[in-house]
Design brief:
The chain is α/β, with parallel strands linked by helices. The protein has helices at 14-24, 45-53, 71-81, 101-111, 130-144, 155-160, 162-169, 180-183, 195-205, 226-244, 252-272, 279-307; strands at 4-10, 33-39, 59-63, 86-90, 95-96, 115-123, 149-150, 175-179, 209-219. The model has no long low-confidence stretch (mean pLDDT 95).
Amino acid sequence: MNKATVVIPVLNGGDLLLAVLGMALSQKVDFEYDVLVIDSGSTDLALGYVRDAAGKGRIRLKEIPQKEFGHGKTRNLGVQLSDSEYVAFLTQDALPVDEFWLANLVRPMMDSAEVAGVFGRHYAYPASGPKMRHDLESFMQGFDKGPRVVRIEDRAEYDASLSMRQFMHFYSDNNSCLRKSVWERVPYRDVEYGEDQIWARDIIEAGYAKAYAPDAGVYHSHTYGVRDTFKRAKVDRKFWVKEFGYTSVSSLRAMHNEAKNQYRAERAWYEEQGIDLSPLQSVQLYAKKLANFYGEYRGHLEASADGR
């Protein structure tokens, strides 16, 4: 029996998926583990590699129709198909930074039976822009400075503190690991988006602990254009408002104010770093800020409409 299974949902992962698989298969651990790829209709050459490798060594492959994919549903399938005590998740574009990623990710659950799930650190890819690298580093430092293991000690305080709830339920299936025995009692919900954050909230509120593993890192970052920035912001904000009741920009005036303020702040950051933006880059930056907050505004409207 394997101690751990690494599950990777895949759709046309390309060359980056092959790099992720290479690192996933090269982990230095003192226990048995395997890698389960769940493909939902890929048509690229990478799928051929996985098919050829499946059943040879550590790789297993499960193919499902694309219409059957769901973020929570497919991860539940991955856990069901594992015979392991611990089930780790990567995405096809989340590349472990070294050969000790899995050992470091599993360790908090080995150290404490109360820990139901663990998430690891994220790094922006080296080719990402300097602002993205800075922002992701700053975000992760918030967890570096906090406790490594968290659980609800005072339910009244938890219910009253938005910042505490946000800190406690942050979780990312780009780089995570769960205890299968807990999942059997608290499985993922079958949702279109945000299954990881909802699951973390569910386990925390069920009385379990959640851990952060800063030494279990992956490279994972995206550079979006204006259109994709809008789409991502809309989906993201709709989720947070609908599922968690968080507030958002709720008027066009607020949208413009937020875009303007963040544009100015980011321009100031570039100036402090001695980086000159061209006129075109400045226009693109402002366009992305508008797209982001217009997406948040639309997401807020859709979540509010769904709630009626």
